[in-house]
Amino acid sequence: MTVVVPLIIGQIVRRYIRDWLERKKPPFGAISSCVLLMIIYTTFCDTFANPNIDLDKFSLIIIVFIIFSVQMSFMFLTFLFSTRHNSTFTPADTVAIVFCSTHKSLTLGIPMLKIVFAGYEYLSLISVPLLIYHPAQILLGSLLVPTIKSWMVSRQKALKLTRQPKAPVKV
């Protein structure tokens, strides 16, 4: 209900105010970013202010290491699957697949955790990996962009060269 009802209401309301939205062009991007920031902030506050959270530095480091390993593994696997020999994906498709299939948002994860584990005293502890996963995917993405971009550009150039018809040779 926390996730589905607002989506349904938004779709219904949009039908009636579409013209107004197209004329006014409200800053939904900025509003969305502010709401996401508020959700992340309140979740961090709830998590680390909870007296039931007993998380030492070593455990936190292990969690961060596991999350980075899982994230890199998923990105690598999606890269391998989308670049197989018989794959029809373009290099740009591959980049989109690698990032879109492995990146998840707190805006859906936190409400789901709160619904599934409502009333559970260790909810804060359960939400720690999700709180780390979100910044980890942003950090990994920013670190991998130069490498992935150069791969994509070189791959696109190679594809253009192989697709060009060969000019007849004059003797």
TrEMBL record:
Species per Swiss-Prot/TrEMBL record: Serinus canaria
InterPro entries to which the protein is assigned, alphabetical: Na+/solute_symporter_sf, Put_Na-Bile_cotransptr
Keyword line: Membrane, Transmembrane, Transmembrane helix
Family membership: Belongs to the bile acid:sodium symporter (BASS) (TC 2.A.28) family.
GO CC entries: plasma membrane
Transmembrane segments: 28-48, 60-81, 122-145
Protein name, as recorded: Sodium/bile acid cotransporter 7
Keyword Transmembrane listed: yes
UniProt key word Transmembrane: yes
